Amino acid sequence: MLWVWRVPWKDAYARPALPNNAGLLAYRAAIREEGAEERYPALAVPTGASGPNADVWRDESFNNDLAYRGVVGAIGPITCLDALLFAQENARVPQLERPTEFLASVLRKGSDEHEELVVVFGAGAELFPPKTVYGFDIVDDYLAQGWSYWYVLHNHTRQSNGALGIPVPSTSDVQFGRGLAAKRGLKRVRVTNGFYSFDAGIDEMRALRAR
Predict the structure, then answer these.
(1) What are 151-210's pLDDT values in tens digits?
(2) Cβ 191 vs Cβ 155: under 8 Å
(3) What predicted TM-score, i.e. pTM, was given to this entire model?
(4) Average pLDDT of every residue of the chain
(5) Contact of 47 with 83, CB cutoff 8 Å
(6) Residue 192 dihedral angles phi and psi, to the nearest 5°
């Protein structure tokens, strides 16, 4: 599925305020009831990882440590726009029942007095969104019209042990973001787990390891 919204910018979108969405509020309440709400959830590393697989998990842990210590980017309460997009995915596929990830490109254009956003939101039936719903052809059309590629946002689902998803870009996400920056001028990367969101500029992410 692929959606495109064009809306006027509102300062509320950047504030840590939740929309009055019953599904989102129920999801968050269920997580809290399980005692699983953590600002810095531990990374669930599979036991017995060895060779190249162990190297990947070591790099993931390295990146998480930098983000959790505030060396790279910032992790804070989910903002209104992030929450609206997470709620959209939760309405499409209940996240407590079948975790899935979405990908949202957020572009902006205009002056302080009249700034607009375009959100290109894609998701599929499986855990990871297929490339067919990345929507980069749409992004390119807006970039050609002078819009700026402000940030890309996606969610990390709950981990295998029930802990919240890690609110930090994975090594694959780092590589993905760098590619978008080089090809399309992406400015920032955001990752949310429905409670907390990571935010960093592309230049800030140079210290992170990529796959």
Answers:
(1) 999 999 999 999 999 999 999 999 999 999 999 999 999 999 999 999 999 999 999 999
(2) yes
(3) 0.95
(4) 95
(5) no
(6) -130, 155
Instruction: Please give the average per-residue pLDDT across 112-121, as a whole number.
Output: 91
Distance CA 188, CA 105 (A): 10
Q: Which of 169, 192, 189, 193 is nearest to 181 (CA)?
A: 189
* 195 closest CA partner among 67, 44, 31, 54: 31
Residue 170: C-alpha distances to residues 29, 51, 198 (Å)? 26, 19, 11
Q: For residue 152, give the H/E element and its range.
A: strand 148-155
Cα-Cα-Cα-Cα dihedral of 29, 99, 5, 144, to 10°?
140
- The runs of H, that is alpha helices, within the chain are 22-33, 51-68, 80-92, 136-144, 171-184
Beta-carbon count within 10 A of 25 CB: 14
Rg for the chain, CA atoms, rounded: 17
